[in-house]
Amino acid sequence: MVAILSAVVLAAVAVCAAGRELLAPHALDQDVYLGVVGAGVEGHLFGTDQLGRDILQLSLAGARSALAGPIVVAVGSMVIGVMLGTFAGYRGGVVDMLAGRYADLLLALPSVLLAIVVAGIVGRGYWITVAVLIVLFSPSDVRLVRGAVMEQTPRPYIESARILGIRPMRIMFRHIAPNIVPIVVANLLLNVAFALVALSSLSYLGLGVPPGAPDWGRQLADGRALLGDNPLAAVVPGVLIILTATAVNLLGDWLSELLDRRVVAR
Amino acid sequence: MNGTVLAFALRRAAATLALLLALSLLVFALLYLAPGDVARNLLGTRNVTPEALAGIRELHHLDEPFLAQYWWWLSHAMTGDFGTSIRTGGQVGPLLLDRTGITAATAGLAFLLSVLAGVPAGIAAALRRGRPLDRMLVAASVVGVSAPGFAVGLILLYVFALGLGWFPVYGTGEGFLDALWHLVLPAVALAFGLGAFVVKLTRAAVIRELDQDYVTFARGRGLSERRVLRLVLRNAAIPIVTSLGLMVAYLFGGTVLIEVTFALPGLGSLMEESVLFKDIPVVQALTLVVALVVSATALAVDLSYLAIDPRVRARAVRR
Questions:
Q1: Does the ipTM surpass 0.85?
Q2: Which range marks the domain in which residue B184 is found?
Q3: Which residues of chain A are within 8 Å of residue B147 when distances are taken between CB atoms?
Q4: Which residues in chain A are contacts of B20 at CB distance < 8 A?
């Protein structure tokens, strides 16, 4: 029930993200003479922001950067996690040590703070921020995969594969990998939710998307100054961020519970 | 026995020190990560003559090898001298101290709120596992974990400051009570996510204990529910308390966004201003201080775990 509801919310966000040009063709149209107006004025259901842009259209258009970046972050960090984590967990030794230290180093600081520092110093821009977040998210994925691989390695099927003389690369990515997929997939969704919050936080601080781009975090930053004139300019994107992140989290929880049960049943 | 525990503690402390050293190297490298000439970056947006540029190079030892420069910076940082701010031209150390109070007050209040509300709620949810109250609390905690503090903060501002007028909108206030009043909304916004995390954590820890054999046994022996609950809570307290220590890192990340939202002049908003202005000495100092606090807390938590729980002590020694 909850899972279905979350899936519906996410599907709606995905439709907005994919069909942005069709659904919100006037998102960036400015009407400086009109300026800020409240809800319902001149056909603007949720009013406008300081540039006279329609809040409803802008919010619909913001779905794209709310979904695309977080998915890229989660997938990118998953790829690094699976590669490094599998090597570290299966081979052990120096690779394991280096991967462990790399994770220690990045986990010693709050990731949002690190992202703020690196994105601010190295340069601003949506995809730069996405790249920074991939690097910052990967340590926990490396740890997760490493743990799962280390749990599989002493099992009889791997022992026998080794005795049969199968190449290590093949053991790692053909024999072990399928068995850690459930954990990785469940974690992927939780990472999407975290990345959505992190990316919108950076945009909120003016480090993510460029000024003027449709983005919920950016809208919140602009809306902060408009709380008195048109509170919906901040409340609508705020509710959208919370709703979307909650839906992704609920779906992730549901999926990991489902996969847990299936593992127990086996 | 005691000697081995001490050896473990020392090993853990040495690892923390090594980690901090590596981090400080990364933090120092921030200066070189920024695009453009290092000396020019240090001067900021001021107009520069070639003489001034050369002066800056000499002042910051930029003509020396990288590691020598790093050592020079680190040895000064150890004594609290982080150089001068590009933006204000003043010393970084006093600037940081000036801003610490408000951040400590907000974070402390948020921590208190989230523990006082989160722990009882988590225990209540665990005791009524599967019933409506539990489901409601679990759902609320998922929303809390998902909601970014600044979004919650803006909605709180709209409802309680602008709509109902119960709380001030911006600023810090005068006098103790007024200042506290100004910090309520920021602390609640920060505590929202943290409290949700505490609920999840407490619920999981209590449920884990309730499923143990000793609970069944105690009930079978006819112990009253209250006495059983006391046993369960004492055992569940260890993981809860240690995880609370690790939340300090989360608090530091969240405080940047909350302080910006509520226009509070704390360390978090200093970080935002300095990053946007590329005031690198301040960013370096702040990052290093946060890293120090976070890893010191993690170390303290690990060691206290060692002191509280004999089972952990035995495991640590065997390793």
A1: no
A2: 93-277
A3: 241-242, 245-246
A4: 108
